[in-house]
């Protein structure tokens, strides 16, 4: 079975294994941390969640390593479309995400290769907001996998900052739209 690293809402095993998702097909293998430096971002709009979803962005020189959960997922539940109506992980992740091989450090402190899903570069959109429900899935998943609380707080701060940036962007757009009343052009 392929080893999969989940860093967003699917690090919550209960969510990932819901009947309308993988229905129990994902087997937990514990927590893991990226070997290379990565930062979490909320830069992809999710129709399913109605908010910005998480992404892993390479962050060389930052000293930041993302935490998440490892799962064994059967190959026939990893990608593609199934004729029996069951979902695959790639179907759950959606078209804005692409599969990527990544090195992570597992519970035994071994470097292992895992599959993860990151937002396609052309689908990254700064200035999006995320929801407390979505972030709550991540927090619950991280805590259930005994991720250091310092990282949990950092992830929460990242979500708050994304929402602050979205508010600033929205306020600027309100100003530009309001300026259209005076006959000036925002373009």
What would a concise description of this structure say?
This protein is α+β, with helices and mostly antiparallel strands and 187 residues long.
Provide an overview of this structure.
The chain is α+β, with helices and mostly antiparallel strands and 187 residues long. It has a single domain (3-182), classed as Hypothetical upf0131 protein ytfp. The chain is built from four helices and seven strands; from the N terminus they run βαββββαββαα. The strands form two sheets. Strands 1-5-2-6-7 form a five-stranded antiparallel sheet, with no helix packed on it. β3 and β4 (51-58) form a beta hairpin. α3 (132-144) packs antiparallel against α4 (149-179). The model has no long low-confidence stretch (mean pLDDT 92).
List the helices and strands and how they pair.
Blueprint: E1 3-6, H1 13-16, E2 27-34, E3 38-46, E4 51-58, E5 67-72, H2 89-93, E6 97-105, E7 111-119, H3 132-144, H4 149-179
Antiparallel strand pairs: 1-5, 2-5, 2-6, 3-4, 6-7
Helix pairs in contact: 3-4
Number of domains: 1
**In the CATH hierarchy, what is the class?**
Alpha Beta
Our Rg estimate from Cα atoms comes to 18 Å
The CATH topology is: Hypothetical upf0131 protein ytfp
Give the ordered list of helices and strands: EHEEEEHEEHH
Name the CATH superfamily classification: Gamma-glutamyl cyclotransferase-like
Class from secondary-structure proportions: alpha+beta
User: Which consecutive residue ranges, at least 5 long each, have pLDDT under 50?
Assistant: none
Give the averaged pLDDT, no decimals: 92
The main pleated sheet reads as:
5 strands, antiparallel
User: How many individual β-strands?
Assistant: 7
Task: Give the amount of beta strand, in percent.
Answer: 25-35%
Q: Please give the order of strands in the largest beta sheet.
A: 1-5-2-6-7
CATH architecture: Roll
Report the span from N to C terminus: 52 Å
Shape annotation: globular
Annotation field: number of helices: 4
**What is the helix content?**
25-40%
